[in-house]
What does this fold into?
Amino acid sequence: MALIVQKYGGSSVADARAMLRVAERIVDARKAGHNLVVVVSAMGDTTDDLLDLASQLNPHPPMREMDMLLSAGERVSMSLLAMAINNMGVKAMSYTGAQAGVLTDKHFGKAQVTGMVPERVARAIHDGVVAIVAGFQGVSSDDEVTTLGRGGSDTTAVALAAALHADVCEIYTDVDGLFTADPRIVPTAQRICRISQEETLELAAHGAKILHLRAVEFARRYNVPLHVRSSFSKLDGTWIANEPAHPELEGIVPDAALEEEAVEAPIISGIAHDRSQAKITIIGLDDKPGTAARLFSLVAGADANIDMIVQNLPTSGSGRANISFTLPEVDGERTMRVLRDAQAELGFKEMHYSEGIGILSLVGAGMRTNPGVSAKLFDALSQAGINIDLISTSEIRISVVVKYEQLDAAVRAVHSAFDLDSTDSEAVVYGGSGR
Ligand code: ASP
Ligand code: MG
It folds into this structure.
């Protein structure tokens, strides 16, 4: 008997029919003797609909009220799901994030989990009751309802799994797991059988929309094995877990997923793409110690999360440098304003802003030991006639900025250059928006 935390995304509970299918799955697992804690997202596009509604009433709604509103979405799905399960003869009770002991800081709209005290959930498990927990929400130390940022239900699930020492955290979505690229762009993308937490972190941080970034961070920190799979099929999905030798995984991760490791591990695990970033280029900065420090402390002060940074050395003797960096498009305007105000202090000449860039990231732990990966990547792009704007790398990732319109073609070209195309089956997308 295992303790399983299951998380169902919005498309898995989009309507009564979908919810019944989920309820049946939960009842089956319960009847097989497992203890279950279930985390749910809001039904279908509820969160977006609530956002739209709010904007019709106030273009800049108070963040506190926004979190009150958005947290309601998950309360609807948790209570309905509990009703459905009870009707199938299995005891289930729903809990809000606060009731489930999800403690957060006070950042409305993007609260961080600061502690977990899931006493009521633990009691439910003890009493043989299926606990249904509203994802994406928590409570701050001053008793305010907070939300964890879009897609935050994953984080609720992994944090609960860590706190309860669950055997596995299953993330149910509308695709069969993680793919070597987005199957919506590359129909021949293959399901990844097993992938390390580290690689998943790189993919999630660079646009792969399958998992909330903080959920992966939690999974890595507390070593929670994740199984990302479809609620629309019974197929095995993707196991996200580190070393196969991990004793807790024995008997949980199917042998096939572990054996794959023993065969030759692929150099490249997958390709992520991101269309949500923008680029700022600053021309004619003073080339002296402290300029970059000042620049990026201003950017950090604007609460912008930057990713790539590229500096060009000044041309002979001019004493001026250019710096380009990427950041989320939503932070673009605010950051530009802060920098413009500091133009005199920073002493730059011009500043350019480009939205609509595309970023492709190639991720694979095998890059560490295999030279030539970047050459192959650049060659694939050049053969497809795609120009590279910026490049950045980590130990296990290479990212390139390309033109927005060329991003899909770039992903396809790189996918086949690294022999990631599947020859037999096409990836199935069951519906919904990927969450
Ligand atoms: N309902 C929230 C959203 O759509 C949280 C989630 O789905 O995980 O972002
Ligand atoms: Mg959602």
Remarks:
- The longest helix spans residues 63-87.
